[in-house]
Design a protein that fits this description.
By secondary structure, this protein is mainly α. Helices cover about 75% and strands about 0% of the residues.
Length: about 575
């Protein structure tokens, strides 16, 4: 049996009105000259056909016109002229000629087909559909005519007539899933939910061993706000087909809509564990499920256990190992996540997104060597990836190898498309950081300016640029403007408050500096880092409060015992200026 979707393609190719569609009709031989015709006149017809086949349509048209002057009652000549005019997109003349052909020979189905195609090309879909419907009544086989007629009625939103043609097609074919699904869709477009449901019931009765039709029927009810009917159908299907994946997913969706998290998780877990589905579907289900778990700690932990079981059953599945890495990251286990990504890549090294996920899990400075190693390994597979060069540059920055960092970050910018402004601005900002750390302040400033040219409201870039200027004690007014704007964009950001306070410190406005840096510490609470306490200690020193200065320097020392600058301040009880 020809699959329905293949027939759809055939029909729309014919209905598109393209020159190719009409050209294909040239193979049809609807006319043979009568034996008693004048030989010279017949020769004109033969020459016209030859010229048409050779693509000389103007010459062919001229010859056919000469022929009908001599023999005005030969239908085939008008048919050929209609085809020529159709290829030339001259619908008016094409209709004139085909109508004349039909008036001379009402029994020729090729003439009727061309007439229908002309109507379809002119967007007169119902007229075309009616012709195909009449042809379906007269000729066998007629499935092609019935299908074309139904599709054309649909184009004109005449769904009842389209359904009628499909029903005729079912009588010809017998039970056919794809046609019944199409009928169901047409009833739904007509807002006739009852008949849509009855159509799916025909599938359930016709295919008693197929559980998926219960899920399809439930979907009809669910999409039309009849959730309890949907649940009833799904439970009916579950009793008959307890392992049917579509029913399990349908029930998961129902319980999710009712905010019944326990039942939702139960059915999702059953779906994912379902042995009837392939690995690709299994992973897709997990991904879909995980998308809703970002803020649900308990559900994330449950999903992690589930994925661990799946991975233990299929340890050679690269996609499951990668997904396991994602879940480990979601559960704050970046080191374990990196190992899972490595296992995935050992099985299949062709997935750029997995390489990137591995590298993202290694961006902490503790893993600088690994970030450099694996980013360079990834680049051997994807030598034009801007993101891989970027992460390689971050790795070298973390290793304080700034010349190599600058080289990689510059390459990343060269490869990065300009349409992703956020990422491009981030790359320029990272390059600016590397130049600043390498004491090339002019290029650092230039790259910060480039980043802000791309995204002038990037609060992080504004803050970092402002802070570096303040550390260098240059362009402090500009630094203040950048810092102020960053706080307008993200009010109360602790790091930004510290930067703004440090600018005031460099400007000699110590009380204002103390106020802002204290706010930053209060915002961070116990997570306030060593730099904040060192800054606050410096401010108190300038305010001539040595006791408070030492207190904050000692707090900074507790946070970072290796900071030689703080150790010297404590020892000297002053800032070494």
């Amino acid at each position: 049996m020809i699959k329905l979707h293949l027939l759809f393609l055939l029909c729309f190719a014919l209905l598109a009105g393209s020159k190719t569609a009409f050209a294909q009709l040239a193979e049809i031989k609807p006319f043979d000259t009568a034996k008693n015709d004048n030989a010279a006149t017949d020769r004109i017809f033969a020459d016209a056909v030859k010229e048409n086949v050779l693509g000389n349509t103007k010459e062919a048209e001229s010859l056919f016109l000469r022929f009908i002057e001599a023999k005005p009652n030969v239908a085939a000549a008008y048919f050929e002229l209609a085809r020529i005019n159709a290829k030339q997109n001259n619908a008016h003349k094409a209709f004139q000629h085909i109508n004349k052909a039909i008036s001379l020979d009402t029994s020729n189905k090729w003439y009727q087909e061309l007439n229908a195609n002309l109507f379809a090309t002119a967007n007169k879909f119902s007229e075309a559909a009616e012709i195909f419907a009449q042809l379906a009544k007269k000729y066998r086989p007629n499935e092609d005519y019935l299908l074309k007629s139904s599709l054309l009625y649909q184009r004109d939103n005449k769904y009842a007539k389209a359904i009628e043609q499909y029903e005729h097609l079912l009588k010809e074919r017998g039970l056919d899933e794809e046609i019944l699904v199409q009928i169901n869709q047409l009833y739904l477009k007509s807002n006739d939910v009852d008949n849509a449901a009855k159509t799916i019931r025909r599938l359930i009765e016709g295919y008693p061993k197929e559980g998926r039709f219960y899920a399809l029927l439930a979907e009809v009810y669910s999409n039309n706000k009849q959730e309890e009917k949907a649940k009833t159908i799904l439970e009916e299907g579950e009793r008959k087909f307890p392992d049917e994946i579509s029913i399990q997913l349908g029930l998961a969706g129902y319980y999710q809509s009712k905010n019944n998290q326990d039942k939702y998780v139960e059915y999702v877990n059953r779906s994912i564990k379902n042995t009837s589905i392939d690995e690709q579907t299994q992973v897709a289900l997990l991904v879909s499920y995980l998308q809703g778990l970002q803020k649900d700690t308990a559900a994330r932990a449950s999903a992690l256990i589930l994925t661990e079981k799946l991975v233990s059953r299929k340890p050679q599945s690269a996609s499951l190992q990668a997904l396991y890495g994602d879940l480990l990251n979601m559960n704050g286990k970046s080191a374990d996540a990196a190992n899972a990504y490595k296992k995935s890549l050992q099985i299949d090294s062709s997935k750029l997104n997995v390489w990137q996920q591995l590298l993202f899990s290694l961006t902490d400075k503790l893993y600088a060597d690994s970030l450099v190693y694996y980013s360079e390994k990834a680049l051997s597979f994807f030598p034009s990836s801007a993101m891989l060069y970027y992460l390689n540059g971050i790795g070298y920055s973390n290793k304080t190898n700034y010349p190599k960092a600058i080289k990689s970050l510059t390459t990343a910018i060269d490869y990065q498309p300009e349409d992703n402004k956020d990422l491009l601005a981030e790359m320029y900002a990272s390059l600016a950081d590397a130049y600043h750390s390498n004491k090339d302040f002019e290029k650092a400033d230039k790259n910060f300016e480039e980043a802000l040219k791309i995204l002038p409201d990037n609060a992080t870039v504004l803050n970092n640029y402002a802070y570096y200027l303040s550390v260098r004690k240059v362009r402090l007014n500009d630094a203040a403007q950048f810092s102020k704007k960053s706080l307008e964009l993200r009010p109360g950001e602790a790091t930004f408050l510290d930067t703004y306070g440090w600018i005031f410190f460099q400007q000699g406005q110590y009380e204002k500096a103390r106020e802002l840096i204290q706010q930053a510490i209060d915002k961070n609470g116990k997570d306030a880092d060593a730099t904040l306490y060192e800054h606050l200690g410096d401010v108190y020193y300038k305010l001539n409060n040595i006791e408070k200065a030492l207190q904050n320097w000692n707090l900074s020392k507790e946070k970072n015992p290796q900071n030689e600058s703080v150790l010297l301040k404590i020892k000297l009880k002053k800032i070494d200026e």
